[in-house]
Specification:
The protein has 2 helices and 3 strands. The chain is mainly alpha-helical.
Length: 103
């Protein structure tokens, strides 16, 4: 290995960081990449985040959103089916009333 190449470790050594209440409730919308440390830093709460943890959290949120979207879609289909059945029942009842009045 040549001595002129600089190797940056994947995990930079950080002191244990205690999170403030601001950091606990921050959704980290403004992220800046620090190439030297190979970490991400939130500009709002100044928390250092490991890239893998950030991507994993993002993927879990996306999965949860997709899951709930599918659940809502299924509920919508079920309600549409119930509405169709109620409309059919309403037509049948109106037809019975018309026949009963005519008899």
């Amino acid at each position: 290995m040549s001595g002129d190449k600089k190797i940056i470790p994947l995990r930079a050594k950080l002191k244990p960081q205690y999170r403030t209440s601001k950091q606990l409730h921050c959704t980290h919308p403004d992220i800046v990449v620090n190439a030297e440390r190979r970490l991400l830093q939130c500009q709002r709460c100044d928390l250092w985040i490991e890239p893998f943890e950030y991507l994993l959290g993002w993927a879990r949120r996306e999965w949860a959103a997709e899951y709930w979207l599918n659940e809502l879609d299924e509920k919508l289909r079920k309600k549409a089916k119930q509405l169709k059945a109620l409309k059919r029942e309403e037509r049948n009842i109106k037809a019975r009333i018309r026949r009963a009045k005519g008899a």
